[in-house]
Specification:
The complex is a heterodimer. Chain A is built from five helices and four strands; from the N terminus they run H-E-H-E-H-E-E-H-H. Chain A has a four-stranded mixed sheet with strand order 2-1-3-4. In chain A, helix 1 (2-14) packs across helix 3 and helix 2 (31-43) runs parallel beside helix 4 (84-93). By secondary structure, chain A is α+β, with helices and mostly antiparallel strands. The longest helix of chain A has 13 residues, at 2-14. Chain B starts with a helix and ends with a strand. The mean pLDDT of chain B is 93. The longest helix of chain B is centred in the first third of the chain and has 11 residues, at 5-15. Chain B has helices at residues 5-15, 47-57, and strands spanning 20-25, 32-38, 68-74. In chain B, helix 1 (5-15) packs across helix 2 (47-57). In chain B, strand 2, helix 2 and strand 3 form a beta-alpha-beta unit. Classes of the chains: A alpha+beta, B alpha+beta. At the A-B interface, strand 4 and helix 4 of A face helix 2 and strand 3 of B.
Chain lengths: 111, 77
């Protein structure tokens, strides 16, 4: 089990923004994953998409890692931010932008 | 692989006794719901922690038996 956690930790350490999702950013295979990709793309946030469908142990391991039962899962600077509902809510209220600024994540929102 | 709204509400209230729960069946397939849950157990907690309390109340059904539950949480007052 530890190798899954090591895999997760290394993704989080090497990428400021990581989205564990179903499918890829270019071809999301789930509406909720696609919605988070849309928010990040709209904000111009560079992120690493990790397709959990390619690795069943990762798909379950990430849920244990964050004590969160669903996919997608967004992480900023190693910290779990939330799933689709929370990311959308935070985007609408501006909290997501504040969080990104506070964490020093550089992004260029679409005009 | 489905749950009915009353079952979801019962479990949430069992886990969060003061909860006021409103549930909407998004697609009529017993798999995609939206729920607003208000409880004072959420006070001082982050959104993630609030949602985790609801998931605990659902005793592991979230993500398995229950595929999608769009959650809105807030304290009672």
């Amino acid at each position: 089990m530890t190798d899954v956690n090591d895999q997760i930790k290394s993704e989080l350490e090497t990428n400021p923004v990581v989205l564990f999702m179903k499918g890829t950013p270019v071809f999301p295979q789930c509406g909720f994953s696609a919605a988070v990709v849309q928010v990040l793309t709209h904000l111009g946030v560079k992120f690493k998409g990790v397709n959990v469908l390619e690795d069943p142990s990762l798909r379950e391991g990430i849920k244990r890692f964050s004590d969160w039962p669903t996919i997608p899962q967004l992480y900023v600077k190693g910290e779990f931010v939330g799933g689709c509902d929370i990311v959308r809510e935070m985007f609408t209220s501006g909290e997501l932008q504040t969080l990104l600024d506070d964490k020093g994540v550089v992004y260029t929102p679409a005009a | 692989m489905a749950m009915d709204a009353a079952e979801i509400e019962r479990l949430i209230k069992q886990g969060l006794p003061d909860a006021v729960v409103t549930i909407q069946d998004l697609r009529g397939d017993g798999d995609h719901y939206a729920a607003e849950v208000r409880s004072n157990a959420f006070k001082g907690k982050s959104r993630v922690q609030q949602h985790q309390l609801v998931y605990k109340a659902l005793q592991g059904r979230m993500g398995g038996q229950l595929h999608a539950l769009a959650l809105q949480t807030a304290p009672l007052d």
